[in-house]
Design brief:
Layout (H helix, E strand, L loop, with lengths): L2 H4 L25 H17 L5 H34 L2 H5 L3 H26 L3 H13 L6 H13 L6
Helix pairs in contact: 2-3, 2-5, 2-6, 3-5, 3-6, 3-7, 5-7
Length: 164
């Protein structure tokens, strides 16, 4: 029997044996920063490649815009989480409570993302990729530079000092 088999019955959810309940996917090994870095690297390598088309440049910019949006959303989410965390009593903050684990996990994700964004900044230090980035910027405007995105993330990370 599986969880889906219980959907057609009158058995209440809290009476379904635990072994049949859906288990959440493990997120312990996911590195969002690495995934982001690989996406950006791939987009800019194509934009800097011999094909050198405006389509590749636009894709690279779309990737950068998505990154910029993700960084801003992460910063906002993290600020909200940090605010909630700081309101917890000191005894709870000192424990390994779920809120504390969530906060520390989020902090690790921010630091990972910051490190990967720094890797992207190094990639753009290569003149070939920098040229592709600049060319892309002429095709699509209104984009914060990778450096500005990193500065925003560093601001979030710096605000963590003394948080717990």
């Amino acid at each position: 029997m599986q969880y889906n088999d219980f959907l057609d019955t009158d058995v209440p959810y809290d009476e379904i044996p635990e072994e049949y309940l859906a288990k959440p996917a493990s997120t312990a090994n996911i590195d969002p920063g690495r995934q982001l870095q690989q996406t950006i690297d791939g987009a800019f390598r194509k934009a800097a490649g011999p094909a050198n088309t405006d389509e590749y440049a636009e894709r690279a910019m779309d990737t950068s815009k998505s990154t910029q949006k993700a960084v801003k959303e992460l910063a906002e989410d993290f600020e909200a989480l940090r605010s909630c965390y700081q309101k917890l009593p000191a005894a709870v903050r000192a424990s390994e409570h779920n809120h504390v684990a969530s906060f520390r996990n989020a902090q690790g994700n921010v630091n990972s993302l910051l490190a990967r964004m720094a890797d992207v900044e190094k990639l753009l230090g290569n003149s070939k990729y920098k040229e592709a980035y600049n060319r892309s910027c002429t095709v699509c405007d209104g984009l914060d530079s990778v450096g500005q995105q990193i500065a925003q993330l560093r601001k979030v990370v710096d605000s963590l000092e003394g948080s717990y």
